[in-house]
Design goal:
By secondary structure, this protein is mainly alpha-helical. Helices cover 80% and strands 0% of the residues. The longest helix is centred in the N-terminal third of the chain and has 37 residues.
């Protein structure tokens, strides 16, 4: 199991690098667009591209943030509970998270294939939309794996 966990950690870290690259690309594109607007030559589709890159930033960084416990948590209530109750509550929350993100993964994939079937493209520059939605589904699927491992860890702590 430790090897699989290392593999998932490696995948999430690499996805976070892709998210960082997307942020840098957004920054460069916006700066270039601002400069070119001064010379009356804006970059067509900047708004759409930034939106697509933003969806990659969010979906590709979810799993790594969850793996590193980098999200905001309210611990004031949980710290006052006994350790066993904390672990049980953590397990319940992880199970609910897993359920929600399995549905999100599934529905994003269904939506992406529907977009592909209907050949939907962005309005300004005509980029196909389905790869972006598939990317969101991929990010959610990786998050599901991280949540599953967190749930297994929580169940192990409850059993001990």
């Amino acid at each position: 199991m430790l090897t699989l966990e290392k593999l998932i950690y490696s995948l999430t870290k690499n996805m976070s690098y892709v998210a960082a690259l997307a942020i840098m690309s957004m920054m460069c594109l916006i700066c270039a667009d601002i400069v070119l607007r001064l010379f009356n030559h804006p970059i067509p589709g900047t708004y759409e591209i930034v939106g697509f890159l933003g969806s990659f930033v969010i979906s590709f960084s979810l799993a790594y943030t969850s793996m590193e416990k980098g999200h905001i948590a309210v611990d004031i209530f949980f710290q006052r509970l006994p350790f066993r109750a904390q672990y049980i509550l953590e397990g319940v929350v992880e199970a609910l998270n897993l359920f929600i993100f399995i549905i999100a993964t599934w529905q994003c994939a269904v939506y992406a294939f529907d977009l592909k079937k209907h050949e939907e493209v962005s309005l300004t520059i005509g980029i196909p939309i389905y790869p972006v939605v598939l990317g969101i589904s991929l990010g959610c699927a990786l998050l599901c794996l991280v949540i599953l491992f967190n749930l297994i860890k929580a169940v192990r702590r409850i059993v001990k």
